C-alpha cells in the first residue's frame, strides 16, 4: 500500500476505536454487535484477499497494534486477520475453499496453539468469536478443519469472546497446508497477536504518562518525582523492546523465509509476554488507587495482556525452544 | 521514532560488501599479538590493517577519508568481525561524528582522514573526578586570551590516553553562564606542554582508563571545535552515537557466546539445574530483540532520523542484554569462577561497567523521562 493510503486506512480504524472503545467491562450484546458491524464495514478482512494482497504483513501488524490501543469488544485478530490469512494460504495451495459463515480461529482450551491429536476439535475452543460463526484450526499434519461455534466459555478477559466448538457435527476438512505454509501461518498468528498486545501496552503506558503529568501530590505533578520517572522510563524501554521485536518479525513475514519469520515471531512473543505485562503493571502503579477500581479501564488492559501472554505460546513454551542450538 | 512501516532489510549492495570483506579478511587475517604487546598497541596495528583495506569509516564522506556509505555498511563490517571473533573496528565512529557535525571544513579535512587511518589516535576528555553523571558540572577551565586559551583541570576515564595523539576535550569557557551553555570543545594534542597522562588499572586488569592532568596548557583558538558554548550539544551528539547499540559492534560477540551456551546446554541436557534452559532462552530473546531493535534504529536513520534521546533506550536495552547474558554465562559455565584470567570472567566484569559508562542507567532513565516522555522537572 502507498504510505498515504495506509495512513487513511489506519485513520479509519483509529476513528472506529475512538468511537467504540469500551468504558467498562459490561458491554451489552447489542453494542458488541453494532461495534463489530462498524469494524466489518471498514473491510479490513479484504486487505489480504486480492492476489497479491493489497496490504503487507507489516501493515496488518500495525493495524493490529492500532486495534489494541483501546479496550474493544470487537474481533479483529480472529475474524479479520487470522482466519482470512489461513484461508488465503489454503487457497494458494488447494484453490478455492468454501467455508460457511464468518470464521475465526480455534485454539486449545488453554489458548495455546492446538497440539497433537486435535482432529475432532474436542479439546479446542473458538477464540475471539465476536461476529464469527465457526472456527478454523490447523492440525500437526497440516490439515485445516472448520467447526461451528457453541456456547460461550468464561475467561478473565470479558471483552474477548471465547466459545466451545459444536460437538453435534464432525469438523469439516477444508484442505491441507504444507510444512512451509504451516510455519508461515504460525508466524503470522504470533505476530498479529503480539502486535495487538504491544499496541495495548504502548497505549496504556502513554495514558499513565499523561496522568503523571497532571496528577499532583505534595503540590507538584507526580511525574516530576524521580521514583515515578524511573518507573515510566523502564516501562518505556520494555515497550520499545517488544515494539522493535514485533515490527521486525512482521517485516520478516513479508521478506524472509517462513522459518526465519517464525523464529523472529517467537522472539517477539517471548518478549511481549514479559514486557507488555510489565508495562501495564507500571501504568497501574502510576495511576495508583483509581486503577484498582472496576470503572477504570486499567483492569481491562491488565486482563487482556495477562491472558494475551498465554495465547498461542507462553514464555515457558518459547524459552526452551529459543535455548536450543541454532543448527538443531 | 515512527509508526509508519519501515524497511528492515539490507540495501542490495550490502551482501556484496560482506562478501568482499570476508574475502579480504581471509587474505588479511588478524595479526598475531606479540608477547607483552599492550592490547591498545595490538588493536592499533589491527586498525591500520583494516584501514589499508578500506574498512574504516565506511559511513564517513569520501572527501574526509571515508567511503561515503551508510551506517548499515559500517554495522555489517562490525558484524562480520564479531562473527569471526576478531576485535571490532576501532571505536572512533562517535568522535568522527562530532567532528563531522561541529568541526570547520578545514578541521574536518585535516583531522578526519588521519583519524580514520590511525595515523592519529584519539581519546575523549569529558568526565572529571567531580563531574561524572553531572557532566555539565565540570570544572576544567579554558581561560581566553588573545588568540589562544590556557586550560587547567583534570579529566578521568579517558580511554587509552597513554597511546593517543589527540584528545577531544571539553572545558568551561565561561564561568558566569549556565553550565549547559558555557562549555566548549577543543582538539588537544597530547604532546603539548603541561599535559600529564596516568593510566588506571580496571577491575578486570586492563589499563584502558586514564587520568589526564592539564596544567596551564595552551590551546590555540583555531583548535576549538565549533563556537564557544557548542560543547554541550557536541557532547550530547557524541554520547548519543556512543550509546547506540549499533555503533558499538558488540552484537555479534553476544551471538557467539550464546551459541556456545546453547551448545553446553545441549551437551548437559540430562544434568541441568532448574530453569537454566529458560534463562539461556531469555538471553537469546534479549539478544534477538536487540538485533531487531538495532535494525529498527538503522532503518529509522536511513529514513532520515539522526541519533537523539532515543539512544538512552538503546543503551538500557544493551545493558540489560549484556548483563543478563554474562550473569547467565557464569551459571552455565561455573568452572570460569575457578580460574584466574579467563576470558568469560573478564568480559563479565566489563559487563558490570555497562550500566555506568556512557552515562549511568539512572542518567539514561532521567533522559528518557525528560526528553522522550516530557515529564516535568522536579521544581
TrEMBL record, chain A:
It comes from the Bacteria. Keywords: FAD, Flavoprotein, Oxidoreductase. One of its GO terms (molecular function) is acyl-CoA dehydrogenase activity. InterPro entries: AcylCo_DH-like_C (IPR036250), AcylCo_DH/oxidase_C (IPR009075). Gene3D superfamilies: Butyryl-CoA Dehydrogenase, subunit A, domain 3. The lineage of its organism: Bacteria, Bacillati, Actinomycetota, Actinomycetes, Kitasatosporales. It comes from Streptomyces himalayensis subsp. himalayensis. It holds the Pfam family Acyl-CoA_dh_1. The keyword Oxidoreductase applies. Residues 192-307 form the Acyl-CoA dehydrogenase/oxidase C-terminal domain. This is Acyl-CoA dehydrogenase.
Automatic annotation (TrEMBL), chain B:
Residues 123-217 form the Acyl-CoA oxidase/dehydrogenase middle domain. Keywords: FAD, Flavoprotein, Oxidoreductase. It comes from the Bacteria. The keyword Cytoplasm does not apply. Its cofactor is FAD. GO terms for molecular function: flavin adenine dinucleotide binding; oxidoreductase activity, acting on the CH-CH group of donors. Residues 229-373 form the Acyl-CoA dehydrogenase/oxidase C-terminal domain. GO terms for cellular component: plasma membrane. Residues 13-119 form the Acyl-CoA dehydrogenase/oxidase N-terminal domain. SUPFAM superfamilies: Acyl-CoA dehydrogenase C-terminal domain-like, Acyl-CoA dehydrogenase NM domain-like. PANTHER family: ACYL-COA DEHYDROGENASE (PTHR43292), ACYL-COA DEHYDROGENASE FADE29 (PTHR43292:SF3). Belongs to the acyl-CoA dehydrogenase family. This is Acyl-CoA dehydrogenase family protein.
